[in-house]
Amino acid sequence: MLRLLAVFILAISFVGNASNVETSSDKSEGDTTDKSAERKEYIQHHLKDTHDFGITSYTNDAGEKVYIGFPLPVILWDGGLQVFSSSKFKHETAVAESGGNHYVIYHGMIYKTDAQGTINYDDHHHPTNVRPLDLSITKSVVMILVTGLLMLLLFRSLGRSYGKNGGVATGAGRFFEPIILYIRDDIAIPNIGKKHYKKYMSFLLTVFFFVWFLNIFGLTPLGVNVTGNIAITASLAILTFVITTFTAKKTYWKHIFWMPGVPVPMKIILAPIELLGMFIKPFSLLIRLYANMQAGHIVLMSLLALMYLFNSIIGSSLSFFLSFAISLIEVLVALLQAYIFTMLSALYFGFAVEEEH
Amino acid sequence: MEKLLGEFSLGLFILQSALFILLVFLLKKFAWKPILNAINEREEGIKDALASAEDARKEMENLNADNERILKEARAEREMMIKEARDLKTKLISDAKEEAKATADKMIVQAQEAIENEKKSAMAELKSQVASLSVEIAEKVVKDELSNKDKQFKIVEDMLGEATLN
Fold first, then answer.
1. Where are the domains of chain A?
2. Do B15 and A144 touch (CB under 8 A)?
3. What is the pTM of this model?
4. Would you call A155 and B27 a contact, using CB atoms and an 8 Å cutoff?
């Protein structure tokens, strides 16, 4: 039986290879490099925030690119508020005009240009054009709003269900009650302590569910890489840093500037290290979440791209199953990264409110 | 690092921070506070219920112990009462026996005395009767003896015959 199966698979692979040879033979060498460059560009593009909500795009029979999705409002602060629809950019190909200014999108960023959309580059091929403050409702902002709304609805209904049912949760929120309890009993209380944990609970719970939900949204075919965006993780990490710094008690500062229990020369050596550590901690938070989500997306998309690269039934199906397995791992990573972010934030808050001992 | 900074969008950062802080406060007001309060209340309720159950159990135990003690006391009392009754019974019986014995003894003594008196009086009477009877008899005998002259003479002759020998 096994042997039969092996023969069968071999036969199919030969057929697949044969067809592969046939199709690739009539393609020029330049075409394949074009294709791989295109794939790379596609992956890079996917990882970035965009100014329109594109779901998918394809090239129709007439050779025109058709985009499925909808434009989002662009809001710029450039010597005055400029609000216009992102459809003006015509999917990042056209120069948009608003209030006498001209803008183009280059690598996902909006630059101010002249009427022709000229971009000047420096020696390292970086644009030197002015980047106006871009407060647009981008794809990421839409997802943040959607997630925020979802969380509000979900947890508000959970909060209300207690009152209605005499202290017993009902509905979809019920699934999240153990998680809330877990965050309180196994993240907040052990790290911060019973005395102070209450004031940090709102932040910890919000950050956990926010990161988790956005990570999960990132795995959907919508392809929104919100938590893999450095601006988002930086914002979250800086909030952790700000909360840590502003709620810190005397012991926290003492541990940074004048470490107790070590000789004086050590105190002097430790002070700058500890001071640096104060900033490295939130920095590691922001890089960890960003890099994990970014890497997950790159791996997943590369494996999917491999399917097209192999262009054979064995290689492609193998790649498909591999990407399927990676997707499953990514689901775990989505939860794990949310947990780690919350856990480490709680740990840093714990340092901040540590009592003298 | 340069690439990271190139990807960093200040606008997105500002929007995200503002939206996130707003979300934290909204959720705090509408979700986390009610949820955590409800959970806390429930936990307190459970704790209270457990404590009161424990109290009830202890009370029950105390009651049981009391019951046991009361039962024990009652049993001991009963035991004692039975013992007292038994003692009383034996005492009564022995008292009665003694009294009966004393009475019987007294009666016997009296009877003996009476018998003795009767005996004495009977003897006295008998003595007097015997005396009078013997006198009568003697009178009769003598009378009879003396009436028979032949025989008297014979006796006298016999006696005289014997008297000649000495």
1. 66-137, 140-352
2. yes
3. 0.73
4. yes
